[in-house]
Design goal:
about 350 residues, alpha/beta, 5-stranded parallel β-sheet, two-stranded antiparallel ribbon, 7 strands
Length: about 350
């Protein structure tokens, strides 16, 4: 028996609410982390309503099976990717990230299984906090993954006065393949707008580098891409993404003024880094669109995990709220209630 039109309408009410909130937030400012959360809630509510309306039991069962197997599929994927990225890039803290995350998931599952009915009550309660935090971790990870993809593919038919190229390490005095990809993407954008605007090469000199990233990028642009020097500006003091943007903004403000419509900028970085760089630009009041260059498939998961960790550190409050709610419940049910019961 099919559902009535009213029942179907009710099922899609959450999607309508989340969709409205997402659109309002997105139109107001697309470069915010909260958009990722609203977008994921919209997607999940649409999928849930669609499953119920379809009345196909096998689809519901399939969804449950996929969700149940997800932790194990994630473990296998991360382990395989860790081996791949280490083979390509060598062993380092960065390349060990996928493997470390896989081990963390395995350790939690093992601890959860071991503690079932064995450990003291307080330990069971503490372990119970982990899946709560984990739910937010994986939900926000999936949300950021989906929304950052959406943000990158949005069409932008704008003419940029400045195109900022973010540094990404050197090989000797030459840009690495990753950095060359960023530079080439910026040149592609510059040529697409009939060579209008100025390229800003942004990156200081690291302790292990013989020249600044900005100098190496300028040399690549002039010698290999044959870009005239008058179309290039250098920002060679920055050591972080935020400094890339702040110091580049200082240069643009000095040349074009500081009004909201004084200039329009694009910031070119690797595709996995686009959303975080764009969010930082919003935080400092820089009107700029993120443009991403392609990253090798084997390296993308490692790079995105790093991005997610950095963004999570900047938006740590949900984890704190979850911990506070858990603590209140722990004190209420594991401390106060037993104490009162013992005195009745």
């Amino acid at each position: 028996m099919g559902l009535s039109p009213w029942a179907i309408a009710v099922l899609f009410v959450p999607a309508a609410v989340f969709g409205t909130v997402f659109l309002v937030s997105f139109i107001k400012e697309p470069r915010q982390f909260r958009n990722a959360i609203w977008f994921m809630l919209l997607v999940m509510s649409l999928i849930g309503a669609g499953l119920v309306v379809s009345q196909q039991v096998w689809l519901v069962v399939l969804a449950i099976v996929v969700v149940g197997l997800a932790p194990f599929l994630v473990i296998v994927f991360l382990a395989v990717n860790s081996v791949s990225v280490i083979r390509h890039e060598g062993l380092s803290l960065a390349t060990m990230l996928p493997g470390a995350l896989a081990l963390a998931v395995v350790a939690f599952l093992a601890l959860y299984a071991w503690d079932s009915g064995r450990g003291p009550r307080w330990l069971a309660s503490l372990i119970g906090l982990v899946p709560l935090e984990g739910l937010w971790f994986f939900f926000s990870f999936a949300a950021l993954l989906a929304y950052s993809w959406l943000y990158r593919i949005m069409p932008r038919n704008r003419r940029y006065d400045y195109i900022i190229i973010h540094g990404a390490g050197l090989s000797g005095n030459k840009p690495t393949p990753l950095l060359r990809g960023r530079i080439d993407k910026a040149v592609e954008l510059w040529e697409r707008q009939q060579r209008y605007g100025v390229l800003i090469v942004s990156g200081g000199q690291g302790s292990d580098e013989i020249v600044s990233e900005a100098a190496a990028m300028r040399a690549y642009l002039t010698e290999e891409r044959h870009i005239p020097e008058e179309s290039i500006l250098m920002e060679d003091r920055s050591t972080t993404t935020m400094e890339n943007l702040r110091f580049s903004k200082d240069i643009m403000d000095g040349r074009s003024g500081t009004g909201p419509h004084a200039y329009r900028a694009a910031l070119v970085t690797s595709d996995y880094h686009v959303f975080r760089a764009s969010e930082y630009a919003h935080q400092i009041g820089l009107k700029a669109d993120g443009v991403g260059s392609r990253t090798s498939g084997y390296y993308w998961p490692t790079a995105f995990i790093r991005e997610f960790v950095a963004i999570s550190r900047a938006h740590i409050w949900p984890y704190i709220v979850i911990a506070i709610v858990w603590l209140i419940g722990f004190i209420g049910f594991d401390v106060i209630v037993p104490w009162l019961t013992s005195r009745l």
